[in-house]
Amino acid sequence: MIGQLLLENSVLAFAGGVIGLAAAAWVLDAIRTLAPDEFARFQEVRLDTGALIFVLIITVVTAALCGLFPALVNSRTNLASALKQGGARGGTAGRGRNLGQAVLVAGQVALTVVLLISASLMARSFQALQHTPLGFDAVNRLTADLYLTNANYSNDAEYRHFFETLLDRVKRCRVLPPSVSIAPCRLCPLPRRSILTAFWTAGRSEPPQNQLPAWQVQFISPDYFRSMGIPLIRGRTFTSQDGPEIGRVVIVSQSVAQSFFPGQDPIGKQLYDFHERVGLKRNYYTIVGVVGSVQYDNPESQPTPFQCYYPYTQNTEPNRINFATLVIHTENNPSLIIEPLQKAVSDLDPNLAVSNIGRLGELVANSFAIRQMASVVVSLFSVAALLLAAVGLYGVLSYSVSQKRREIGVRIALGAQSTTILG
Length: 423
What we know:
Largest sheet: 8 strands, mixed
Order of helices and strands: HHHHEHEEEEHEEHEEEEHEHHHH
Strand content: 15-25%
Distance between the termini: 35 Å
Low-confidence stretches: 87-91
Number of strands: 12
Helix content: 40-55%
Radius of gyration: 34 Å
Number of helices: 12
Shape: elongated
Structural class: alpha+beta
């Protein structure tokens, strides 16, 4: 009997293992096909030797447990008593067998419920993540990167002159509609991690260096907030008058105003940096405006609460990199201005190339891609587990009902209602 049970369960287990490997190979191909191009690691996922050994071990263990367990249970059975119970036409399975079936049913239901709850929670968290307020509008926005070579733009004056000339030419370009808004900034939200630095407010006691909060820094042009759809809450935005020779100004996020100036008007208050720690002069900045807070990093990460913006004309940051991202906003399809933009840059400097041109909406969608991929994969596994559990439950319950068919007939003959029998 032990040999027969082991043989039967081995055939079933190895057949399931082969079908599982075939399904896994098909699913991996589907995952690699659906995975975004940005996640090249997905293309490296494959069924290797370790996976095959794992499947073999699981198959052997499953066959052994499913074959040995009933064999051991039957080996302890009193054959004479079993024959007597089996010969009675009204007899039913004993309490031990019913308990074993109940444990199987409960175990299958419990594992399936865990998977389904996990999948539903992940789908719910992904849905909530998609509705996370980002603080800007990604519709009809185009972004493009410009890398200014150090040889031609080695100082701040040449850096500023290039962008001033570029913005002026774009505004006067007849090909572009008058509603176009274009603004250079240091980093665009979401595709890259923002620049963090330390600041503090003048007139307050300074905390220890290791307790200074991190601030997100952004160097922008006057049209940046309009191009990004970031609301101005108080004060003003930058103008062409905010040049390097005038007093340094800064625009802060609403979170800064609420945290450092509760119940006060932050306009006119001052911040200062810590450039003296790197051998430079400390700078003081006057707050001229307050804007809405923006999610610059991945939406899944904890956002840095404090953000400040400076005119790119006052960018004297140590180790400044001659790099900028252009944000272009149009009322219609922003892709139509790619060619005029490239021509304007080429006319200014033929050695410069506009790179990484793409829609801001697509960049936002890509930031959710990993969580979306995980939600899809877990949901597919949960559906597969549900189907397998349904088949298993049907088999166990069907067998249990067939064993109690005579008992059910006797109960009906004695007057039991159909609802009671079903219960």
